[in-house]
Automatic annotation (TrEMBL):
Classification of source organism: Bacteria, Bacillati, Actinomycetota, Actinomycetes, Micrococcales
Organism: Georgenia alba
Highest taxon of the lineage: Bacteria
Gene3D superfamilies with a match to the protein in the record: GntR ligand-binding domain-like (1.20.120.530), Winged helix-like DNA-binding domain superfamily/Winged helix DNA-binding domain (1.10.10.10)
Signal peptide start and end residues: none
Domain HTH gntR-type per the UniProt entry, residue ranges: 4-71
Annotated Pfam families: FCD, GntR
Protein name: GntR family transcriptional regulator
Annotated keywords: DNA-binding, Transcription, Transcription regulation
Length: 228
């Protein structure tokens, strides 16, 4: 494949290596060296690193080139999940109310796809990032609110949390929690959808916080029905 990699393929390759910390936090990247290593010209590498900068996985230091960003600290993890408690919980409740735009069929398909994949994949962490991103994205897309969707995407929440810790090594815990959210949305039960999403995010925060030696502070969770 040398010499034929597209910028998309270079981007996917570098993103995976950064998320899995095969390229460590704080590592300086040399575009010429990467191009030689991947067997491509510098052009697809430059395009890929610009996208990774947009993902907040790389930072361009003036005159010094690109460096991988540091991992989230505990305060940053808490801030991110408090943001998600505002947006994801509200989104789950909202789509469960809207029967016409209910995303349950697509959610079921994504859960089934991931569940079928688990016994065959050799890279569960990578597949879990993709599944988690798609599952939550289906709920956000069903809102039909581009402002909320864009703000959420700008956090790159899934990429940065999964850099911390392989918190669910076989994917089964996440799958169970996602299935609970799906069932509530499918039943058009907004209270249950809100509760299931809140349980999922709170549990995920605790799992990712295991990456730190310090005790994780509790999430400051907004009360029910208080967003928007």
């Amino acid at each position: 494949m040398a010499g034929r990699r597209t910028s998309e393929e270079v981007y996917d390759h570098l993103r995976l290596h950064i998320v899995e910390n095969r390229i460590p936090p704080g590592e300086r990247l040399n575009i010429d060296a990467l191009a030689r290593q991947l067997g491509v010209s510098q052009t697809p590498v430059r395009e890929a690193v610009r996208r990774l900068e947009g993902d907040k996985l790389l930072v361009n230091e003036s005159g010094r080139g690109y460096r991988t960003t540091p991992l989230l600290d505990l305060a940053g993890l808490r801030n991110l999940f408090e943001f998600r408690l505002l947006v994801d919980v509200w989104a789950a409740r909202s789509v469960a109310v809207n029967r016409l735009a209910n995303p349950a069929p697509a959610m079921r398909a994504e859960i089934d796809r991931f569940e079928d994949l688990l016994p065959t994949t050799s890279d569960i962490p990578r597949e879990l990032v993709g599944h988690d991103t798609r599952f939550h994205g289906l709920i956000l897309d069903a809102l039909g609110n581009d402002v909320v969707r864009d703000a959420y995407e700008q956090t790159h929440a899934h990429l940065h949390t999964f850099r911390l810790y392989a918190a669910d090594t076989d994917g089964s815990v996440t799958l169970t929690e996602h299935r609970g959210i799906f069932q509530a949305v499918e039943a058009c039960d907004p209270d249950a959808a809100e509760a299931a999403m809140r349980v999922h995010l709170t549990a995920a925060y605790a799992r990712f916080a295991e990456a730190f030696d310090d005790t994780a502070p509790e999430l400051r969770s907004p009360g029910a029905h208080r967003m928007f």
